[in-house]
Amino acid sequence: MTNNALADTFTVSQPSDTEVLMTRVFDAPPRMVWDAYTKPELVRQWLLGPDGWDMPVCDIDLRVGGRYAYRWSHPDEGEFGTGGEFLEVDPTSRIVSTESMEGFDGSSHVTITFEERGSGDQGGQTLFSMLQRFESKEARDGAVATGMADGVAISFNRLDDVLSASA
User: Fold this and answer.
1) pLDDT of 147-162, one tens digit each?
2) Which is nearest to 64 in space by CA: 30, 90, 82, 38?
3) In DSSP terms, which residues pair with 81 in a beta bridge?
4) Looking at CB atoms within 10 Å, which of 110, 147, 152, 158 has the fewest?
5) C-alpha distance from residue 130 to each of 25, 31, 47, 53, 58 (Å)
């Protein structure tokens, strides 16, 4: 995997008792990051978490009222899935959706933004931000306890590789 300075730009915080905010700067323009996040053939290459997982289901109907469904499998760990509905879609800049994950009660509200960064020689970077709002502190803490942030960090490193290969 790519090991560059941008790999150190992943941050995780908890802005409130019910929220998790994850951000990462990618060395690619928002259009490329958007495509990698919304096109199933690209999502399957990077949204995998730790080694050994694959994604046999990646359905994305990217429109307001459209749904998405992801399913992961691992030969030793089994399978799990998540899905939701798109509430807002503003191409190359913002996605708002619901998310329900197998094994967890309730759902969360997810806001993702793709913000262009830099100018001149430093242009062409994207600040990707994902704010996930859970129904309760207990639900947030349960999601965090799964190692969610570690899996996202690993996936984002893969996404960086996909973006580098597409450049």
Assistant:
1) 889 989 999 999 999 9
2) 90
3) 71
4) 147
5) 12, 17, 14, 22, 19
Nearest to 68 by CA among 37, 113, 92: 37
Q: How many separate domains does the chain show?
A: 1
The candidate with the shortest Cα–Cα distance to 43, out of 30, 31, 22, 57, is: 57
Domain extent at residue 9: 5-166
Number of CB atoms found within 10 A of residue 34's CB: 21
What is the model's pLDDT at position 104?
A: 80
pTM of the model: 0.89
Nearest to 21 by CA among 10, 33, 32: 10
99, two tokens: 């998310």
Interval 89-122: pLDDT, tens:
999 999 999 999 988 878 999 999 999 987 655 5
**What CATH number does residue 91 fall under?**
3.30.530.20
Query: Tokens at residue 161, please?
Result: 């590789």
